[in-house]
Amino acid sequence: MTYLYLSLKYLFTVLNWKAINRSIGPGLLFASTSIGVSHLVQSTRAGAEFGFALVGIIIAVNVFKFPFFEFGSRYAAAQGESLIDGYRRLGKVPLWLYFLVIILSMFFVSAAVVFVTAGFMDNLFGISDHWPALRLLPSFLVLAICFGILYFGKFSTLTEIIKVVGVILLLSTLIAFVLTLFHGRAPMIEGFIQPSLFSDKSIFFIIALMGWMPTALDLSTWNSLWTLEKMKDPNNAPSFKQIISEFNWGYWITAGLSMCFLTLGAYLIYGTGIEMPEGSSAFANFIVNLYSSSIGQWSYFIIALASFSIMFGTSIGVLDGYSRALNHTTKLIFNPTFKPHKSSSPKGYRIAIALISIGAFSIILFFMNQFRQLIDLATTISFVIAPFIAIANLRLVTSKHIQDKYKPSKLMITISVLGIIFLSGFAGFYVWKQFF
Which of 15, 139, 277, 371 has the most CB atoms around its CB within 10 Å? Predict the structure, then answer.
C-alpha cells in the first residue's frame, strides 16, 4: 500500500491537479466522450489479443490526430465560430461532405456507445437477470435518460455530471494500473502462439482501433461547439491561452489512459487462454472483474459504478455532440438567412436528439447479438472518413482570415501533414483490402 500511495502522489504531482480541475468545459467533455468504447473496449482488446505489440500504433495515432482536435478549440477561440461555420467558408462542397459524414456515422456511433453503456448498466443493476426477455430494456433506459437530460437540461448540467463521473473512473483506472504493474503479469498457457499482426483479421481490428483512438476525428467539430458554449459564460469566459491549455490537458490525459487499459489487457489476459465475451453485458462484467482482480474483490461494485458512470457520460456527450452538429449543419445548408452568432433555437437541437435516439435504438435492434461487429463497424467508419476532416481542419486554421497570432506553429503544421499522410494511407489500405 505504501508503494501505491507514493506512486499516486507522484502521479498527481506531475499531472498538476489544479490544471485538470479547471477543465470543467470542452476539455473534460472531450476526455469523457473519448474514455469510453475506445478505452474500455478497444484498448483492452488490443492488450488482450496482441500484448504490447500495438503500443507504437496507439502512440502514433494519438500524436497524429492531436493537431486536428486542437484546431477545433483553436478555431473557435480565434474566430468566435465553430469549425462547421468554417467549412461553409471553404465552400458548399466541404459543408455538404461534412453533412454526409454526420449522416453516415451518427446512428452507428451513437448505437455503439449506448450499447456498451447498456451492458455496464445491466451488469450493475442486473436487469436482464430479473427480466431475461427484456434484454433491450437497458439500451432503452440509457437513451431515455440521456434524452431527458439533454432535452430539459443545460450545458452546465452536462459538464457537472461528467466532472464527477470522470474523476471516479480516472482514480479507479490509475489504482488498477499501478497495482497490476506491482503484481506482475498473469502466467501464459503452454504453447501460446502470438497472433500475426498482418492477417486480415488483425489488420481490420487495427483500423477499427485507430478509428476511435482517442476518439473519432469528426468530433473535433463538437469540440469547437463546446468551446463556443463555454465562451458564452459571462462569469468565467476563458482566454485563448486557457482554452488551448484546457484542451491539451483533456487530450493527453485521455491518450495516457489508453495505455493504462492496454496494459490491463496485456498483463491480465494476453496469452492466458481467456476469451473476451461477445455480449455487451457479459463484456461489462468481464471488464469489471478485470479491474477488481487487481484492486480486490471488495472493489467490484465501485468499479462497476465507475465504469457505468463514464460510459453514461460518454453516451450523453455523443448524443449532445451529434445533435449540436446536425442542428447547426442543417441550418447552414438549408437556411440561407441563418446567422450563427445571433440565431440560436433549441427546437432543432431537440428534434436532432429525438432523431438520433430513434436511429441508434434501431441499429441496436439489428446488432443485438453482434456486439463486436457493431463496435468494429462504427469505429471503422470513423477512421475511413478521418482524412477528409483532417484536411478541412488544417485548411481552416492556416487560412488567410485567421490572424497570425492564432495560427498553429510550424511544428503543429508538420505533424498535421504527417498525420494526413498517416490517416490517408491506412484508410486507403483498408478500402483496397476490403473491395479489391
Answer: 139
- Reduced to 3 states (helix: H, G, I; strand: E, B; else coil), residue 370 is coil
Q: Is a pLDDT exceeding 90 seen at residue 391?
A: yes
Exposed, middle or buried, 8 (CB in 10 Å: 0-12/13-18/19+)? middle
CA dist., res. 74 & res. 413, Å (int): 13
DSSP per-residue letters across 211-237: HTSSS-GGGHHHHHHHHHHHHT-SSSP
Cis peptide before 214 (omega within 30 of 0): yes
Is the separation of the CB atoms in 83 and 71 below 8 Å?
yes
Residue 35 contacts residue 166 (beta carbons within 8 Å): yes
User: Are the C-beta atoms of 217 and 69 separated by less than 8 Å?
Assistant: yes
Q: In the chain, what are the domain boundaries?
A: 2-435
Q: Give me the architecture of the 2-435 domain, per CATH.
A: Up-down Bundle (1.20)
The mean pLDDT of 256-275, rounded to a whole number, is 90
- Say whether pLDDT at 221 is over 60: yes
Q: What is the pLDDT of residue 3?
A: 35
> 115, 280 in Cβ contact below 8 A?
yes
pLDDT band at 9 (very low <50, low <70, confident <90, very high): very low
* Per-residue DSSP letter, 239: P
For residue 57, pLDDT beyond 60: yes
* Cell reading at 133: 426477455
Average pLDDT in the chain: 83
